[in-house]
Amino acid sequence: MIQVKDNIYWLGLRDWDLRRFHGHELSTHRGSTYNTYLIRDEKTILVDTVWTPYKDEFLDLLEKEVGINNIDGIVINHNEPDHGGCLEALMDKIPNVPIYCSKKGVDIIKGHFHKDWNFVPVKTGDRINIGKTDMLFVEMTMIHWPDSMMTYLTESGVLLSNDAFGQHYCSKSIFMDEADECEVYQEAFKYYANILAPFTPLIRKKIAEVKALNLPIEVIAPSHGVIWRKNPMQIIEKYDLWADQYDEGFVTIVYDTMYNATKKMAEAIAKGLDNRGVPSKLYNSASSDVSDIITELFRSKGILLGSCTVNNSYLRSLSGIVDSIKGLKLKGKKGAAFGSYGWSGEAPKHLSEGLKDAGVNVEMEPAVCKYQPTPEDIEDYIRFGESFAEKLG
Ligand code: FEO
After folding, report:
1. How many domains does the chain fold into?
2. Are residues 133 and 258 in the same domain?
3. Residue nearest atom 2 of ligand 1, based on CA coordinates
4. Domain of 42?
5. Which of 1, 42, 227, 259 could cysteine-pair with 221, CB 3.0–4.6 Å?
6. 177 flagged as catalytic
């Protein structure tokens, strides 16, 4: 156990090896942690558990550090299996302790475990006294599951924020001020872009709501990655920024190619962008990490998708990208499509439609190339890049 503040302790597990999360959806290049917290007041309260595969290790840890029978209550801020995954194993040992969770949390826990435990549903503003401190609950509905909530400890000003403000990041220290700041922010941003981006409108409202509560927040302790102990508001300010049609002014060009014609187009378009002072990054979607591409798309002002045509559509590596852009519900991005073809040539048109369907502002007809580009074609694609740069404003 590591003391977070006063009588609040971190009791988590470091997963240095984790490389994929949410099944295989999300890459986690720097591992992750499953942070649970113990409040040792007149009552001993455990906040969240860890991912199911680690249940034996976690229960051993709990027994050694706390004594499972000494736990008086469990808060489940969110019941995705990386947090609620050990609940059944734990409740087998202490079946009568109360479980504090949101109303939706009750449904979800029942849906996962089919058990009717001693649930105490809580909602925003509810307080439960456990000695010197109250636990004050703030629902975070759909940030990012229906059950999500945060628990604020009134005596110490510690906000146990669950997934919000977290990062899939494993480090020796559990505190941001002792970790590599650059790495932490890379992972916090990737986490936001890949997991929280679709809920951006709710996040803006929630941040305003939390600020209006006027809670003195001294520490933000999420359920993954490092704890924000020094200047904890820094990550709230970042969320405020990221939730406001965020971009860093560059263009991400994502393409797939069979015989390099589309790749040559991508490079010519990038040259055109460069001619107008707009930086760009190129990713081959077949060989790049999709979670990293999504992170880049979130930061981009412009999105260009390219593919040659195969079987009347685009190459399959673009399918996941188009679907992801739609799912992320990105706002304020401009986009266009391009691609080579041999005879039918539907890919750029379908990419363009995919971008529009995803809410990206597409103001240019796709650039196309039959077979391989000529030097004159390359000049056209450079001009295409220049025109796109001008549309970015
Ligand atoms: Fe960390 Fe939504 O689970």
Report:
1. 2
2. no
3. 80
4. 2-242
5. 227
6. no
| Of residues 361, 313, 312, the one with CA closest to residue 336 | 361
* Ligand 1 midpoint to CA 18 (Å): 14
Q: Specify the pTM.
A: 0.96
> Does the CB atom of residue 333 touch ligand 1 within 6 A?
no
Q: CA-CA distance, 108 to 85, in Å (whole number)?
A: 12
| Alpha carbons 339 and 354: distance in angstroms, whole number | 14
What are φ and ψ of residue 46, in 5° steps?
-100, 130
The residue count for the chain: 393
**pLDDT tens figures, 161-195:** 999 999 999 999 999 999 999 999 999 999 999 99
Do residues 111 and 224 both lie within one domain? yes
Q: Is 80 a catalytic residue?
A: yes
42 has catalytic annotation: no
- Residue 393: predicted pLDDT: 86
Which residue matches tokens 């988590």? Answer: 12
* Per-residue confidence (pLDDT) for residue 234, from 0 to 100: 97
Q: Which segments in the chain show pLDDT lower than 50? A: none
Q: Which helix (H) or strand (E) holds 313?
A: strand 313-314
Assigned token pair, 183: 């790495």
Mapped onto helix, strand or coil, the DSSP state of residue 223 is: coil
pLDDT digits (tens, 9 = 90+) for 110-154: 999 999 999 999 999 999 999 999 999 999 999 999 999 999 999
In a domain, 189, yes or no: yes
User: Among candidates 287, 321, 299, 194, which has minimal Cα distance to 251?
Assistant: 299
